Amino acid sequence: MANEHPAPTAHPAASSTQNSHLPIHATPAPSDSIIIPTAMASASLPAPAPGRAELLKAFEESRTGVRGLVESGVSSVPEIFRHPDPYASIPLAPPGVSIPVVDLSLPFPSAAAAAAEAARTWGFFHLVNYHHALPQPTDGGGGGDYPARALAAVRSFNELPPAERAPHYGRTVDGGVIYSTNVDLYNSPAASWRDTIQIMLGPNRRPDLAARIPAVCSAELLEWEARATAAARAVMGLLSEGLGLGPAALEEASCLEGKVMACHYYPHCPEPERTMGIVPHTDPGVLTVLAQDDIGGLQVKHQDEAGRSCWVDVKPVPGALVINVGDLLQVDFFNIFILCERSTFNCRNPVTIKISQFSALPIHQYS
């Protein structure tokens, strides 16, 4: 995925090749941040410090996540969330550098060529004018405010009183829905400054899944799932065509069957320079469809023609989705497409919301 600078102070993470995501840095902002995506950390960090297990246990027993720390009035970042700053040597890209834009309203061959080129050179791109490819809303209303409604619903859940959030907190994947702080909380050397709702959308989807998602956001997230899946189908068609395989090749390979939605919420951080929202990582699966609010904070690592790496800010584009080529697509097509590392470490911003849906993910990766 991508990187960000101030999310508790974190630096852009480098990708093993051209692109990558950076961690989200926390920053002193009056509001909170929300994001919907998760990925696999790729940065090399030191081993967890002695005594960390006891601190983690105490944090987990509160069942209120990072948001609970903010609600308690913490004025400094707890030790378990403090990250080193190993990416200072990788600079930010100069102003004006941005990921490519793919316009779905263009003739199919032109859009396919643009998507394939963006995937080859960046591993990321903005997708615009995609609404005609999405299903109509089930409530009969206008669908133009999606994913805004889904992003707002994620915020609503995370800003419920602690006593209403706590019953949902846990790490058991059996129910199809997980609300927790960091899926790798007990394995990573330092925790990241975010809370997440993860929803297992297939292939073995629970028939009662809708009832297991918190009521305040269930309808909105499932409505967004249908739209994100349609967007993923359209992008897979473009990439398949760009590879010369025909527009249905990726979908016919069952690349839409295994899906996970990750909704990340990044609260205000009192010391953004000490932690990260997400460490540098690449995304699992075939591709990620990411919806972010108008605050931003996402960064991707990119290598210029001279081979120099830098972190590129992915500024929000009104009405656009962010598409990220995942590990499986990059590997299966023999490095034809770039595997880009990303991170979100900028938590200095006001409330930030991002929703990611991964396609073709084995559920065990999130257990």
Automatic annotation (TrEMBL):
<keyword id="KW-0560">Oxidoreductase</keyword>
<dbReference type="GO" id="GO:0051213">
    <property type="term" value="F:dioxygenase activity"/>
</dbReference>
<protein>
    <recommendedName>
        <fullName>Fe2OG dioxygenase domain-containing protein</fullName>
    </recommendedName>
</protein>
<comment type="similarity">
    <text>Belongs to the iron/ascorbate-dependent oxidoreductase family.</text>
</comment>
<dbReference type="InterPro" id="IPR027443">
    <property type="entry name" value="IPNS-like_sf"/>
</dbReference>
<dbReference type="Pfam" id="PF03171">
    <property type="entry name" value="2OG-FeII_Oxy"/>
</dbReference>
<dbReference type="InterPro" id="IPR044861">
    <property type="entry name" value="IPNS-like_FE2OG_OXY"/>
</dbReference>
<feature type="region of interest" description="Disordered">
    <location>
        <begin position="1"/>
        <end position="28"/>
    </location>
</feature>
<keyword id="KW-0408">Iron</keyword>
<feature type="domain" description="Fe2OG dioxygenase">
    <location>
        <begin position="251"/>
        <end position="367"/>
    </location>
</feature>
<dbReference type="InterPro" id="IPR005123">
    <property type="entry name" value="Oxoglu/Fe-dep_dioxygenase_dom"/>
</dbReference>
<keyword id="KW-0479">Metal-binding</keyword>
<dbReference type="GO" id="GO:0046872">
    <property type="term" value="F:metal ion binding"/>
</dbReference>
<feature type="compositionally biased region" description="Low complexity">
    <location>
        <begin position="1"/>
        <end position="17"/>
    </location>
</feature>
